[in-house]
Amino acid sequence: MSKERDAEEGNVTVCVRARPLNEREKRLDSPMCLQFQNGRVVRITKTGATNGAESQAGVKAFTFDRAFDSNEGQSALYEYLGLPLLEATFKGFNTCVFAYGQTGSGKSYSMMGPSGGRDVLVDPGIIPRLGKGLFARVRELLEKNRSEREAAQSEGVERSALPPELTMKVLVSYMEIYQERVNCLLSPKCENLKVREHKALGVYVEGLSEVPAESEESMMQLMYGGNQNRHIASTNMNERSSRSHAIFSVTLIQKRLGKTKDGAESSTELRAKVNLVDLAGSERAKSTGAEGGTLREGANINKSLTVLGLVISALADISKSKSDAGSRKHVPYRDSALTFILKESLGGNSKTFMLSTLSPAAANYDETLSTLRYADRAKAIVTRAVVNASAGDKKIRELEEEVRQLKEKMRHYQELVMRGGVGLEALSPRNLNISMPTDMEQRNLLEETESNLFASTPRRGHDAALLAYKIYQSEEVMKRLTEAEGAPNASASLPQISHDMPTIKINRNDPFL
């Protein structure tokens, strides 16, 4: 891991999990082809179709961060994947878990539980357990903050010295990618949504619904309701085969509101997004018995998974050869809606976990070996996760402090000039200890302002507006100070902010303020 503050670099965490033999495999009397060792090593053996003898292909071994055999339950899976993910989320890191594997190998069961998480009390998967842990932690932190503030108030602590007031918000979105079309599962009428990319905001889905969740129960209702809108079909391999990739996203917003020593309002915000991805299963037409529309669905599923494989391979190659700039290669994110949407999760600002699900039956040897190779390749990918603290708030506080100091200096020198105690040259930017930004810095600042103006929340829009105003105000002061150096009349040339300047009305009742 990188030791740089607020950023952590590391490899994608890759786990594999085998389910028990299902009824179909038991009827086929299929022998087992998997063995697990030390919780990390998986050995796969190709056996003969008639007598179970090992073929010339022999035994292949793979080592992962964690390997779960069919005897390990949902709680063990959550403890290894879910708890670290939850901890990272509260620190402000984006996170992602995506489940990949053959159709019917246990992806949806691992992510949601039986029957798509309909009954969260029966063997719940990662998402229901994450929801429970998330809201338990939210309640704990809010109660702790309330107690600390009340204790400080009872001791007569000044308002500016009180612990900042903590507010927290959880937002949920749920989408499916069906035949390269992106549909909102929380608003069924929102179909064929456009995937966009902004230089600062990254990749986003235009028009995707984002719904507040007040509790784990409401979060699970959203998940199950969305599952009812998801495309499914029956195949030989899976009675309820998902025909689409699904991305259940949870955004946690932590905001701390306080007062500075001079009574001004201050705020900090952490915003972290969790992508929980249930991929459609890889499949072979011969095995699934798919025909007609179901066959075409399978072809589209395999196409997007093929692109995902190409992206994983390209990212793995890049991670292995970072020192050789000439070896960098194109990553085909845009070749599929799935990989485009998961661009940050796969190779950008995210702590990412891959769960590969396996059938232990020798009848599925080829598909299982393919999944193991897929997962083995992903181990080499390196991501760099950054704490998502509100850059707008930080920049605004810096500019506000700069303007405050500037105004104090102007008032001080104005008094001296009016009393005749200082020459006009004292009002120069140099003597006021003001550093004029370079052209590059100005361009970067303007780009940041532009980026914030396109942000998707009222708070970010407010931040951008206030930031733009402060930039304009500071530049206006700088210009007037510079003009004042050569003016014939000091009292007439003292810097003032014109009433003709564009102003922005700010609603102080804005809950995001």
Query: Uncertain regions: pLDDT < 50 for 5+ in a row?
Result: 49-54, 233-241, 285-293, 453-466, 484-513
Biggest sheet statistics: 9 strands, mixed
Percent of residues in β-strands: 15-25%
* Average pLDDT metric: 78
Q: Rounded to an integer, what's the Rg over CA atoms?
A: 29 Å
Q: What is the CA–CA distance across the termini?
A: 35 Å
Q: Architecture of the largest domain in CATH?
A: 3-Layer(aba) Sandwich
User: Shape, please?
Assistant: elongated
Overview of this protein structure:
One of its GO terms (biological process) is microtubule-based movement. InterPro entries: Kinesin_motor_CS (IPR019821), Kinesin_motor_dom (IPR001752), Kinesin_motor_dom_sf (IPR036961), P-loop_NTPase (IPR027417). Residues 11-381 form the Kinesin motor domain. This protein is an alpha+beta fold. It has helices at 23-27, 74-90, 107-111, 126-154, 216-228, 285-288, 292-320, 337-341, 343-347, 365-378, 391-418, 439-453, 458-484, 490-493, and strands at residues 7-11, 13-18, 34-37, 41-47, 54-63, 66-68, 95-101, 165-178, 181-184, 195-198, 202-205, 211-212, 232-233, 241-242, 245-259, 265-278, 351-358, 382-386. The protein folds into two domains: 73-353 and 381-386, 3-Layer(aba) Sandwich (Kinesin); 391-493. The protein has 14 helices and 18 strands. Strands 2, 6, 7, 8, 9, 12, 15, 16 and 17 form a nine-stranded mixed sheet that branches. The chain has a three-stranded antiparallel sheet with strand order 3-4-5, with helices on one face. Strands 1-18 form a two-stranded antiparallel ribbon. Helix 4 (126-154) packs antiparallel against helix 5 and helix 11 runs parallel beside helix 13. The longest helix is centred in the first third of the chain and has 29 residues, at 126-154. The radius of gyration is 29 Å and the shape is elongated.
